[in-house]
Write a structure and sequence with these properties.
150 residues; alpha/beta; 5-stranded mixed beta sheet; 5 helices; globular
């Protein structure tokens, strides 16, 4: 997994509408970029996390943060998730698992003794030059904004 001080991968992918989304487009604009990786749309923890960011989106923007969510869900799944929860930020549809691999968050997990590959919930705060300033690996889904702003 990437660490504080590493250059963030300048990923290119598609957002929920199938439009190109590139990390480079968000850099150098006087804002930090929060790239948060989450396992699945419309699951309890992922919904709590997205809604916490939504509820504090205005504050995050005023404090100089741009939010981008990433999961391996499809564009259609992201569209439904955004519509259902009125999310004001883009979601990357990383169906090919390229972005999750670049950031090192696609790992072996286990539940009820069964092993499988999946996204380890992680948030990267990237400064305007593209350097990782902070990695939040113990995400508190209902208090995520506070973790970012601390």
């Amino acid at each position: 997994m990437l660490q504080v001080g590493d250059k963030a991968p300048l990923f290119e992918s598609k957002d929920q509408d199938g439009q190109p989304i590139k990390l480079a487009d968000f850099l150098g604009k006087g804002k930090k970029v929060v790239v948060y990786f989450y396992p699945r749309d419309n699951t309890s923890g992922c919904t709590a996390q997205a809604c916490n960011l939504r509820d504090h989106y205005e504050t995050l923007q005023k404090e100089g943060y741009q939010i981008i969510g990433v999961s391996t869900d499809s564009e259609k799944s992201h569209q439904n998730f955004i519509k259902k929860h009125e999310l004001p930020f883009p979601l990357v549809a990383d169906t090919e698992k390229e972005v999750v691999e670049q950031f090192g968050v696609w790992k072996e997990k286990s539940m009820y003794g069964k092993k499988y590959m999946g996204i380890v919930r992680t948030t990267f705060i990237i400064d305007e030059t593209g350097v990782i300033e902070e990695v939040i690996s113990k995400v508190k889904t209902k208090e995520h904004t506070a973790q970012i702003l601390k």
